[in-house]
Amino acid sequence: MYTVSDTMNTQFKKGVLELCVLVLLDRKDCYGYEMVEEISRNIFISEGTIYPLLKRLKTEGLVISYLKESQDGPPRKYYQITEFGKEKKEKLVAEWNEFAMGVSNLLYNRNVDMEGNCDE
Amino acid sequence: MYTVSDTMNTQFKKGVLELCVLVLLDRKDCYGYEMVEEISRNIFISEGTIYPLLKRLKTEGLVISYLKESQDGPPRKYYQITEFGKEKKEKLVAEWNEFAMGVSNLLYNRNVDMEGNCDE
DNA sequence: AATAGTACCTTGCAATATATGGTACCTTGT
DNA sequence: ACAAGGTACCATATATTGCAAGGTACTATT
User: Fold this and answer.
1) What is the CATH number of the domain that holds A25?
2) By residue range, what is the domain housing residue A66?
3) Do B4 and A103 touch (CB under 8 A)?
């Protein structure tokens, strides 16, 4: 199991894990435990986080799920992204990029003139 | 007053606004209303967010404050970053950069081998 | 006198990552 | 046979924090 330093700021992850899960599922169907492994390659995530998150995504209609047997342990619950989920993913990616750029500008004092960010 | 689209994901900001405030205060002393203006150039922030945040930073010893009269309205409460605050800022900047890079790798499927992210 | 901008503040709410603890399957070593 | 460890799922309670909504008060403009 891969791990990234668990000192990483918990708050930073708010909302981002949903984005990460949708991005993974847009590539291929995954089961929960697998996604924890994947995401853990890059940012720390606790197992206790993924299952409530997946449940929420399912309730919101962003994903569906199906069971599949496994040789290595109990049956796996695979998740598949829906069309609605794909739309949401696109929206979140765009928002994340805009946000990350905004933060970067603030941190490194680049006050670029962006379209539509001024009242008059 | 500058504004960025207020549709920006609220969750993304968790923890980041603290970082932004500390970065601003590391450049120069600022008062709350001023920081809202500055930050709003790049990411949406509500006025109702900054004052509880500043209060918390003060309680934690990351900043101190002093009053100064103004011609344009009521007295301004300026905030100054402490040595402890500067250390915290450095730590948060590093954590943010690591985090943002991790997310970027996940979004764009760059599974780089980074040092210390594998158990064996 | 009324309005708008500046500048501060408090309270309650909503969202979500995590810790903790639990169930159950399979393989390997003793 | 059985203990241990990895795989795989789940639920609950808690902490953190951004925001909306509402308030006070000063100054300048209409």
Assistant:
1) 1.10.10.10
2) 11-107
3) no
DSSP 8-state assignment for residue B72: S
3-state secondary structure of B31: strand
A2 touches B at CB < 8 Å: yes
Asked if residue A20 is part of any domain, the answer here is: yes
Point out the nucleotide closest to A10 (alpha carbon to C1′): C17
Q: How many domains is chain A built from?
A: 1
The answer to whether residue B56 sits within a structural domain is: yes
Q: How far does the CA of residue B1 sit from the closest CA of chain A (Å)?
A: 7
CA distance B20 to chain A (A): 7
Q: pLDDT for B9-40, tens place per residue?
A: 899 999 999 999 999 999 999 999 999 999 99
Answer yes or no: is B8 within a domain: no
Range 23-82 of B in CB contact (< 8 A) with A: 23-24, 27, 38-39, 41-43
Encode pLDDT of B33-91 as tens digits: 999 999 999 999 999 999 999 999 999 999 999 999 988 888 999 999 999 999 999 99
To test the contact with chain B by mutation, choose from A103, A105, A114, A119 the residue with the greatest count of B C-beta atoms within 10 A, namely A103
Is residue A99 helix, strand or coil?
helix
Amino acid type, A116: G
| Residue B24: closest CA among B14, B12, B39, B10 | B39
CA A120 to chain centre: 36
pLDDT bucket at A4, cuts 50 / 70 / 90: low
Does residue A120 have a pLDDT over 80? Answer: no
Round to whole Å and give the CA distance between B33 and A113. Answer: 21
Please indicate, yes or no, if residue B37 is contained in any of the structural domains. yes
Whether A12 has its CB under 8 Å from any CB of chain B: the answer is yes
